[in-house]
Amino acid sequence: MDACQEGKSGDRLHAEMHFERGRQLFNVRKYEEALAAFEEAIAADEAFIRPYAGKANALTVLARFDEALQVCDDAIGRDPSYAVIYTMRGAVFRNLGRRDDANADYELATKLGPDDALVHFNYACFWAHMGRRDDCERELRRALELDPGLNSAAAIDADFDRYREEPWFEELVAFK
Fold first, then answer.
1. Averaged over 86-106, what is the pLDDT?
2. Side-chain half-sphere CA neighbours of 171 within 13 A
């Protein structure tokens, strides 16, 4: 089955193109444009779940937390097994000061996606934000075991600023 035939809810190929454009725009900090691209991806194929995480992430960066929560809840309703969306909702909860809810979502994400590098990376960001060094190191180490290429993201992610000069962090993110 090719990408255009997958599912009955829309055009997957176009959805993937909009999603990838959204990721690229997000990476260069064009958050409003990224948000629009993620919305286009969802409109093209509502069953394609990954753009929901992108949209929630963009809304979170734009401090539109209520909307981000709604997007996460919608995505969870569509696919409760998609681990990354729980880390997005965890980030929203963190920003709202709901740390217990955030931690519960990150925990669930690690159960649903134990081998998903992004899940562990996002959990490491949460622990870094909370100042929990050992938990941060454990999750970041796991993320980098699963995807060594995330070292570049870790090297510049502001969540890790407090650990940037520590030997364990330098060793983890070093280019090898």
1. 97
2. 5
Residue 13 tokens, joined: 């190929």
The three-point CA angle 31-81-72 to 5° equals 35
Q: Own/partner pairs for 114-119, CB < 8 Å, 24+ apart?
A: 115/146, 116/83, 116/84, 116/146, 117/142, 117/143, 117/144, 117/146, 117/147, 117/150, 118/84, 118/87, 118/143, 118/147, 118/150, 119/83, 119/84, 119/86, 119/87, 119/143
Let me know: does 26 contact 57? Beta carbons within 8 Å: yes
Q: What is the dihedral of CA 20, 70, 115, 47, to 10 degrees?
A: -60
pLDDT (tens digit, 9 = 90+) per residue, 154-165? 999 999 999 999
What DSSP string describes 79-90? -TT-HHHHHHHH
Report the distance separating Cα 111 and Cα 47, nearest Å: 23
The 10s digit of each residue's pLDDT in 17-66 is 999 999 999 999 999 999 999 999 999 999 999 999 999 999 999 999 99
Tokens of residue 70, six digits: 């709604």
160 is written with which tokens? 């890790």
